[in-house]
Each structure stands twice: as structure tokens, then as C-alpha cells.
Fold these 2 entries.
Entry 1:
Amino acid sequence: MERGWHQIALDVLKANEVRLIPYVPDNVLKPLIAAIHADPFFHAFTVAREEEAVGVVAGAWMAGTKGMVLMQTSGFATLANVLASLPCAFQIPVLLMISERGTMGEFNLGQAAVWRTMRPTLEALAMEHHVITRLDECEFIMDRTIRQAHLTQMPAALILSPLLTGGKAVTRQVVA
Amino acid sequence: MIAAHNAKRMYRFDLMQRLVARLEHEEAVIGGIGNTNFDLWSAGHRAQNFYMLGSMGLAVPIALGVALAQPKRKVFAVEGDGSLLMQLGCLATVATLAPKNLAILVLDNGMYQITGGQETPAARADFAAIARGCGLTGAAWAADEADFERLVGQCIATDGPHFIAVKLDDQPPVTQTERDPPQIRDRFMRGMGAKRSKLPG
């Protein structure tokens, strides 16, 4: 049976010894979060803000443990300052996995509006980032991006497109 | 329990010297931005010190990451009151995860000293009470220098997570930390035993 994107992500994180997973949850990430919690290899926990998770992963890396932050697009939008002044300035490979909300059938205008800030912010920070759209490319992009981040000591972001995950689809406006 | 308004206002540099003098087991210290880490630096550089340059509010989360990565090493987060206000949620995270080796030290001068001494919006806040409310049940104010030393000793000798708040006077920092982030990171990683290099450190 073909592995789903979340099983591939789980396998790639393990292969790269990425154990510490602080996150702010997202519906699309649910199967990955559940799988990570179910596997004793990982230490996963929620934090109050995505900034906190960036600090945790940065501290852990400097003390010898690899980690990755899970979040959705709106969470990424809170991070420009801490990304610039911690992982970018100090050259610390903080990894971000972002569930892409706000595009391809988004029902929430707030998400759609903040989505437009994500790529310009990543580009302005000169942060390595890749959008994953296809299952057959998922393992290669995840594995190589994580490896490069660790080898070059630079942060990186993996964006999970709705083309990969199915996204969070609502077909009609809800009127109560 | 000492109420905030009864705590003596102390000199940050003196407290940093007292803290560093108690560290005999390569304890990690994460210094929050600005004057907080400047006086940690002035108290005498140690390979186990990390000095932030931005990312205001992240001293506790960074220290939490270090503490989770190395459960046998004691880790101190030294954070300013204005900085902690930016990231109060981290106290709840620390209380939930309850790392035994983490101690949080909050230096409360009631102002943004580095930008001209403007008051913080926390004139009526009690940081130890906030910490207790988040689940850090032993959180306390240090009444004076002797009490500070006693509480730091407790952090070193007993399981945490610990939380100490101190009231500061308005004296400026002694000097400034050298601003070279990759070098600070490199030295800290060597201090943590997380990096070996043939390059001189």
C-alpha cells in the first residue's frame, strides 16, 4: 500500500533523527500529529505561540537534539522577527513544517489574506523553503531539505500544499 | 512568601555575579536580550552562556529546549520583565512539561531600560503570582541578596522547574555583550558538548 504524506513525513523525520516536535495544531496536520504522539521516538507537545516553538527547537539544536516546528500558515505569519534574529542571525537549523491554508478552496478570508504574506516573508528572510505538492516528490524534498538545513546550519521551511494534503475544504458558506 | 512590593530593589550586575559564582557544574545560562545579558556577560563569560540578540521573549523557550535536550544539566533562563510579558504563555508550557532541570530567573525593573526607561504595562502585575497561576507552584520573589542566594542554591540542589523573580533598581548595565551571533552560538554549542571542532574555539 502506498504511504500517505504523513507516513512519509514520519519516516523522514526519524531517518534524520528529528525528535523534538513542538507545535501549534492544525486540522490538516492531525494525522501527522497523531502518528508522532503515538511513536515513542518523538517528544511532541503543544506550545502557546509558534515563536515559543522556534526558541525551543533553537535551544535544543544547540544542546545536541534535532527538532521541527509544526504550524499552519497563520502561525508562520507571527514569526518574522524571531526567525530573523534567532535562527537566521545565529545560523541555527530550525525546521518549520507549515500546513498551507488560505489557498485552493479556502473558506476563511482571514486565512486567505495572511497566506499572501508567507512566501514574501520567507523570500525576504532568504530562508530555504519548498512547497510540496506531489506525493511522489514528498520524500525527496523533505529528506533533502532537512539534510541540507542540518549540514549548512541554516533554517528551512517545508510548505505542505493542499495539492498534497487535500487541505481543509468547505464547499459552501455556512449560514446559521 | 514575599509579596512583590516588599522585595528589596537590587543591582542587576551584583545579582549576575552572585549567580555565576554559584555555578560549579557547567550549568547553562540563557541571557535574555539587552541589559539582562549584558550584565551576565560582564559577570564573566562562561562557555555555557548564551546571549540573545533579538527574538525578545525567547530566553525561557530557548532554555527549555536546552533543558529537554540535556536533562542532566541544570539550565537557567535569565529574562527581563518586559521580555517575559511578550511571551507569558511559555510559563504554562514549562509548567506542563515540568523539566526538573530548568530554572527561570526574572529580573523586574518595571521598565524598558534600554530604550529610555519607559514603564512597562505591568505596574500592577506580580510575576511570581503569574508563574504560580501557570502551574509553577514554587515561584517566589527574592526578598534580598541573601534570599536570592538561597533560592539559587535551591535551584541547583533540588528538582524544578523553579521560578525566581527579583526587583531591580535602575542602575544601567556595566558594559555590552560582543555582538557576533554565529560565534556566540558556536561557543555555546562547544560549552554544551554538542559540537567538536579542530578550529580554535
Entry 2:
Amino acid sequence: MPGKLTLGYPSARTLRKSLPLVVLAVVVVALIALPLYSSAHASAFSINNSLQNAASLGLLALGVGLTMIIGEFDLSSLGVYAIGGMIAVKYGADFPVMGMLLALALAVVVGGVQGWIIARTEISSVPLTLGGYIILLGASHLVSNSQTLAYANYDVGMWLDGIFGFVLSPRIAIVLGIFVLTAAFMGWTQLGREIRAVGGDRRASRASGVQVDRIIVGIFIASAFLSALGGALFALSSAAAKPDLGLSPFIFAVTAVLLGGVSLAGGRGGAMGIVVGVVSLSLLETLFSLLGTPIYMVNVIRGALLLVVVVIEAPDLRRALITVRRAKSA
Amino acid sequence: MAQDGEAFQLNRGRPMTIAAVGAVVILVAAAAATTPGFISIQNFRAILAATTFVGLIAVGMTVIMISGSFVSMSLGTMATITAIFFIYALKFGIAGAILSTLLLGGVLGLVQGFLIGAWDANPIIVTIAAGALMEGVSVALTGGQALSPPDNNYAFLNTTPCGIPVGTFVLLLLVAVVEFLLRRTRLGREVYMLGESRAAARAASLSLGEVGCWVFMLAGFSAALAGIFLASFNHGASLLLNRGTLNYDAIAATLIGGTAIVGGRGSVWRTLLGVILIATITNLVLLRGYSFGAQIFFKGVIMAVFVIVIHLRSQRGR
């Protein structure tokens, strides 16, 4: 891939802009053309399945993406995703809404505390949220006694995943709604513009009167809230909660966010890009499952894809390419 | 990433860290004194064994942290992968197995180090991705089965000359060698410089890619050493070896040792003290019958507290 990049790519920016749509287009074409190269074909059911999978992870991706847009990185979101599902299952046996609210309340506290510490001390968010992730992982084991909890109230999951309009379900609709609201908020409100400005240049936005600290705290709360909601929806619809989901939900989320054009440096990208990233990634996973790709192969591809998108994002790769280009034209 | 000029005012905020370490040591000592079964030769051996695995990985973690790349999320996985490879390679003889395992660890580290060092790719994400990739490949190659050794030619790795495990000697040797590399060689100075400020290191025309490769190759070696001892200690290897908290323990130990998470400061022998503390805490928590969850929870709290304390210390020094 470095070789490909040096051979006459117009610019990193064009690459970033076109990457999400190119990936989506390639995956869709591959799905449609599926019968041409295998005995499988994509049905409305498999598309619905794919979007169900995308829905819960999509909220995690949105949370991670929002912190990236302000130039931070929230590793703890993965822990919130796990414990959110755990709490929703454990305390929502009789009243699902109750468990959900508890999970969300915990998330607001976790996000608030971390955001406050980051805003106040200007500590790097990576190590702090890594600590937060491990604390939450421990808490999740404590809450569940290291067991996988089953959720007896199947009706909730059935309702959440009930198909309507060919490929939709309440779960998908909820998540899609949140994405649209977030996109509208980021695009059309003053606060949305300020959030992006904080990621672009924090000092300058502080100087021009933006309430930077409040925005940081708010974004971390939002990130935790979305992750907990995603985790709860996932656990309720699969009627089970595991104390440790491993790193794979995070790998999905970060890949989707980077595919969707959000920059690790902050200030760039938005909810619509993330949606495109999430949908293309989950369609890609559907493609693999239709083809019967073994799970370890899927893991290899997931890891490789994340490596590719993070290397494209690497600041000094661009610097190196510019040097190469200059040397050529000189 | 690192704050400029911080190195010149190293000592001002130190009391805070010492206070934090002191508090932990007192707590641990008090817990140790009141825990039945803690003070026994057998238990100290168990602590030493735990120290070895975490310690070997923590040496690599420390070098990575000093170089400004935060942490690697894949060193625990690399230890597991190299452990599996070591058991497989035993059929070529013990010397061949050890050398080729070290080579594998070095190469796996080197690739990640190049992406991170030369191109400044995000170290957390690169190492997470590399971990998933390596795990997938190892399942593809082994079919996810546990491997058993073909021979017991590795038995000497489990011996305890003078009552101390071979692994502990290797750990001490590794600490001495890496400390020497960091303090007394040009590479060492460049690692600190890169961690202090990437921009300054570039301005001084260091080869950032080269330094990054060395750092992660060293970490790869240390993970491979951990893998070798993990495999021989368990008389076999599978991906399940990584189900514990090796990687997080190594990160916590490095932080307790006072290494700055943003880079530029830290030492390997102080990490060793952190490792002993972490191993003792793990041991106490187990002896007192706390659950796995409580164990992880405590470590997370310690990690978060140390990250904040060390950060405040570096700010106060400015």
C-alpha cells in the first residue's frame, strides 16, 4: 500500500474524502456480484442482519469518533460498552427500561469524571482512558461474577430486532435516528461548529471565547452515553451479556471511524462519514460470512484493514510522500 | 507530545510520586502482614515466577513508553504467539528454538516499530491491529489447538539454581543490558530525545524510523523471552496463555516505576520495582480470595492514579 500511494496519488485529502465512498461502493458491488463468483447471494435478510450488527457497534463508533473529532481518544468506551450491556441485562430483568437507564446513568458519571479530569489537568486521554477501561473491565467482572449473564426477557430482543421495511428494525431505526440527530447538531448549530474548532485548534478556539473545557466534558459524556446505549442494545437483543468482549468491538469501531474520514489529529470528519464507515464495514463482514470465510481469517482481515487505515492516517507518512514528490519534480 | 524543557526540572515534582509509591508500599506491607500464608518460601517463589513473566514484558513496555509511543497493546499477545512458536520450534533443538523465537519476536516488533517510528502511525491502534492480525495468523497456522512440547529438552529453563528461577536471572540480565543501552549508548540518548519531543528529534535529524524499529524490536525480544519462559513453565502453549492480564500488569508496573506516559523519562530498573509491587499485589489479592474482577479493578485504579499523579508532577515542574 505504500507503493500504491507513491504512484501518483493526487493528495492525502482527496484520498480521505473519497475513501469512505469508494470502500462502500466496492463492498456493495462485491455483494451484488456475489453470485458471479460463488454459490451465495445477498438477500434482504442478510442485509438486515448486517445492519443489526452495525447498529450496536455503530453507537460505539460514534462515541469514539466524537472524541477523535475533538482531538482526544476514548479507550474506556469499550469498557462502557461491555458494562452497559451487563447492567442492562442484570438490572433490567423485570423492567428493561430501568436497566437501560441505570446503564446510561453510570455512563454519564464515567464520562463526566474522565472528561473533567482531562479538561482540568490537560492529561493525555489515552493513558487515562486506558486506566478507565481496565477499571470498567474489572467492574464488569465484579457485577457479573465473571459469568456470562443470560437475559430471560426475550420479548425485548425480539421487538428490537423485528424486521420492518425490508431491511429495518427498531434497533436500526433508533441508531440511525441518533446518527441523523448528531449530524444535524454538528452541522447546523453553533455548538457543533465549536466542537469541530476545539479539535482543529484548541488554543485558538479558547482564545476566541469557546468554552473548551465544557465541550471536552460534554463530548466524553456523550461518548460514554452512546457506548453504553450501544452495549445495552447489543446485550438485550442477543439476550446475553459477557463481562469481557475483547478488543474486537473496538477494532470494528476504530476502523469504521477512520474509514469514515475522521482524523486522529482532530477537527475533521462527522457523523455521516462514520455511518458510511460503519455500514461498509458491516457489509464487508456480511460478505465474508456469506462466503463462509473462517473466523480467524476474518480476524486477520480486520487487523490488516485497521493497520491500513491507521497508516494512511499517519502524519509522517504524508510528510515522507511530500518529500518523495518534491525530489521527483526537482 | 512531551512538554518542552521538562527534563531540566525533573526533580521538583518528585515528592508527589514518592508519596504515591510510599502509600502503595505501606498498604501492601500492611496487607502482607495480615494475610496468612503470605510469608512462606513457597509463596515467595510464586511471586518471583509472576515477577518474571510480567517483568520481561514490562522491560519492553518501559522502552516503548520512554520513546513516546505510550504503550503497546500487543506485547502480551506477542508473548503468547512466541510461546506457541517456541514449543513448535523445540523439535529443531533447544538452541535453535530459543534463537528463532527471539528472532520472531524481534521481527514482529520491528514491523510495528517501523510504522510507528518512521510514519508516526498511532501506536495504540497499530499495536491493537497487529495483535488481532497476529492472533488470527496463529490460529490459521495452529488450528487454534494447544501445542505440547515434543521433548523435554527445555527443562533447564524451569530449574532454580540457588533457589531462584532461571527466568529471574534472565530478567535481571535483561534489565541490566537495557539500562546500559538506555544510559550509555547513543541509541539510548536518541530514545529519550524522541520521547521528549518528536519535533526536536526530527530537527536534530535523528532517523526516527530507525529509533522506532530498535525500540519495538527490543520490546519484541523481551516479549519473546517472556514467551519462552511462559511456554516452558506451562509445558505447552496456546492462545489461552493470554487470558490473564499480562499486558495490563506490565503497563501498570511501568507507570508505578515512574516512567512518564508521554515519554522522555523513565528507567528500567525502577520498572522492576513496579513489577515486584504488582506481583505482590496480585498475590495478596489471590491469597485473600478476591475475585478476578476485583483484581483487575484494583489494577485499573492504581494505573489511573499513577497516570494522574505523574502527569501532575510533570506539570508542577514546568
